[in-house]
Specification:
Largest sheet: 8 strands, mixed
Strand order of the largest sheet: 3-6-2-1-9-11-12-10
Distance between the termini: 37 Å
Number of strands: 20
Strand content: 25-35%
Oligomer: single chain
Bound molecules: adenosine-5'-diphosphate, aspartic acid, magnesium ion
Helix content: 25-40%
């Protein structure tokens, strides 16, 4: 008998039929003698619809009210799933994030989990219930309702698995695991059997949205094994776990792409100490994650600084940059949303030269210009024009021989 945390994403609980199918699988898991804790996302694209509604009624979106609005989606799916379980004679009880004891910081719309007090979940388990927890939400230390950032139900699942010392955290989604590239762009992408935390972190941080970045960070910190798998075929998927000696260190494991960032350029700022520091401090104070950064060679003591930020933070980042620019002595602030980042990820590249060269040659072969570059020991990322992104992913996937064979 095991304690299993099962998380079901939006597509998995898209409609009444899907909710009934998921309930049957939970009942089956329970009938095998396992304890099951379920985490659900909002049905289908409901979170997007709620955001659209917010845009329709106002241009002003206070974080507190957005969180109140968006947490409603998960409330619907959790209660419907409990009803579907009752129909199968499985005792189930739904819990909001706050009832499940998920305590976060006070950063509305992208809160971090600080602590979990799972007393009510443990009691429900002891009483023989299947607790069904609303993903993506918590309660702040100031007792306000918060959300954990898009895709945050994965984080809820991993955090609960940690607090409950679950044997495994299963993430059920609409693909059968983590692939060498997004299977929606590369039809012959190969499913990976296992990945270590570092590689999965890079995949999640660079557009491979199959797992939310925070969930992987949490899993690595607490050594939780994650099994990403399909709620359509239920076949074995991809294991994310601590690196083992026998785990294959592929030269390249995956190609990812990310169209969620925009580029900002501050032109003709003085090339002297402290300029970048003041700009990036102000951005950090607004909780904006800056990703890639490039500073041009200086011409007559001036330089251009370009950097990328999430599109969702573009407006705030532009305002901050425009505010500080006169103090810095800069000229102009430019924004560009038509960019995409392609990345090559693999633990094996630490020790093998040539990956960078082949990446650049492949993009050059497609006549794709590289606007920015960033690297880590196991990743190379290039910023390119958005319209070239599919071509770039397909070409890089082929160049590194990642496709499924047979
Ligand atoms: P859920 O709603 O279940 O949380 P998501 O849409 O967040 O599902 O994540 C699953 C999607 O992630 C897939 O449908 C797929 O298009 C996308 N994806 C991107 N990169 C990858 C990858 N390397 N492997 C698998 N899926 C990927
Ligand atoms: N419903 C939320 C979202 O769409 C959280 C999640 O699905 O993980 O981002
Ligand atoms: Mg997701």
């Amino acid at each position: 008998m095991a304690l299993i945390v099962q998380k079901y994403g939006g597509t998995s609980v898209n409609d009444d039929e899907r909710i009934k199918i998921v309930a049957e699988y939970i009942a089956l898991t329970k009938s095998k003698g396992n304890d099951v804790v379920v985490v659900v996302s909002a049905m289908g694209k409901q979170t997007d619809q709620l955001i659209r509604l917010a845009n329709d009624v106002s241009t002003v979106h206070p974080g507190r009210e957005m969180d109140m609005l968006l947490t409603a989606g998960e409330r619907i799916s959790m209660s419907l799933l409990c009803m579907a379980l009752s129909e199968l004679n499985v005792q189930a009880a739904s819990f909001t994030g706050s009832q499940a004891g998920i305590i976060t910081d006070t950063v509305h719309t992208k809160a971090s989990i600080l602590e979990i007090k799972p007393d009510r979940i443990l009691k429900a388990l002891n009483d023989g219930f299947v607790p069904v927890v609303a993903g993506f939400q918590g309660m702040s230390v100031e007792k306000e309702i918060t959300t954990l950032g898009r895709g945050g139900s994965d984080t809820t699942a991993v955090a609960l698995a940690t607090a409950l010392q679950a044997d495994v955290c299963e993430i059920y989604t609409d693909v059968s695991g983590v692939f060498t590239a997004d299977p929606r762009i590369v039809p012959n992408a190969r499913k990976l059997t296992a990945l270590d935390y570092d590689e999965m972190l890079e995949i999640a941080a660079n557009g491979g949205k199959v797992l939310a970045l925070r969930s992987v960070e949490f899993a690595r910190r607490h050594n939780v094994s994650i099994h990403v798998r399909s709620s359509y075929t239920w076949e074995p998927g991809t294991w994310i776990k601590k690196e083992e000696k026998d785990m294959e260190e592929a030269l390249v494991s995956a190609v990812t792409h990310d169209i969620s960032e925009a580029k900002i350029t501050a032109t003709k700022v003085p090339d002297k100490p402290g300029i970048a520091a003041s700009l990036f401090r102000k951005l950090a104070d607004k909780s904006i994650n800056v990703d890639m950064i490039v500073q041009n060679t200086s011409v007559e003591g001036n330089t251009d600084i370009s950097f990328t930020v999430p599109k969702t933070d573009l407006e705030t980042a532009l305002n901050v940059t425009r505010e500080v620019l006169p103090q810095l002595g800069g000229t102009e602030v430019l924004a560009d949303s038509d960019v995409a980042k392609v990345s090559i990820i693999g633990a094996g590249m630490k020790t093998q030269p040539g990956v960078t060269a082949l990446t650049f040659e492949t993009l050059a072969g497609c006549d794709i210009n590289i606007e920015m570059i960033s690297t880590s020991p196991i990743r190379i990322s290039c910023l390119i024009r958005k319209e070239a992104v599919e071509q770039a992913v397909l070409a890089l996937h082929a160049a590194f021989n990642l496709e499924a064979t047979g």
